[in-house]
Amino acid sequence: MSAKIRVTVWGEYVHEKKHAAVAKIYPNGMHETIAEGLRESPDFEVRTATLDQPEHGLTDKVLDQTDVLTWWGHCAHGDVNDKIVDRVQTRVLQGMGLIVLHSGHYAKIFKRLLGTTCSLTWREAGEKERLWVCNPGHPITQGIDRYFEIPQEEMYGEPFAIPAPDETLFVSWFQGGEVFRSGCTWKRGNGKIFYFRPGHETYPTYHQKEVRRVIQNGARWASPEGSRWIDTCPNVPVEKAPEKIVVRGETLHVPGEAGFR
Fold this sequence. Notes:
The chain has helices at residues 15-18, 20-25, 30-39, 60-64, 82-94, 108-114, 209-222, and strands at 5-11, 44-50, 68-72, 97-101, 121-133, 147-157, 167-174, 179-188, 191-196. It is an alpha/beta fold. The longest helix has 14 residues, at 209-222.
């Protein structure tokens, strides 16, 4: 029997403590509802972490024991410590999967890894959202029909300022007429990234079975393949080269000097 995929569900846990309307839908926090959806599958071992915990709950030990990290943020992106962003970025490059949800498009870690502003257009009017499957053969879209609908959601519209995705898996249509690339993937270093759009805090999106299925599929897809890659930038001495080398010209760099690790 293969080992379970270790998932850490990260959430700000701010709206739920400030707004009764959000707390009514997510009484234990959005992060716990997302975790609940993952726990419906025996494939996962799930823990949660939040902004208000020491080191935002993302200590070296926690990240070392995480195969896939999900990230939901909205009103407190600026409160995330840059040292934690550095830490998460390192783990993604080493092979940890990252699933960024809804307004996490403006999270420091997402913008850092993608290298763009990740801006978009939006409207909060409780519109119907219809998500169309673009690639029915992809692991993330398994178990989903040609499309599914969310009765009420916040609208996100193009242009979405992201680098061209490796794959576009879902495209959303909203009742007001806008469309949006709602399911996109990238590879950074050894890590896989999946952005999934639905999940505004004032709607019960994370209770919906199709949304839970996509997040489960995304966690399976994003889980690491092979061993962890550690980026150490080593110097390879001439005598250890596979073939004999005759050194020619001046050598400016000496192993151990500044700029070498």
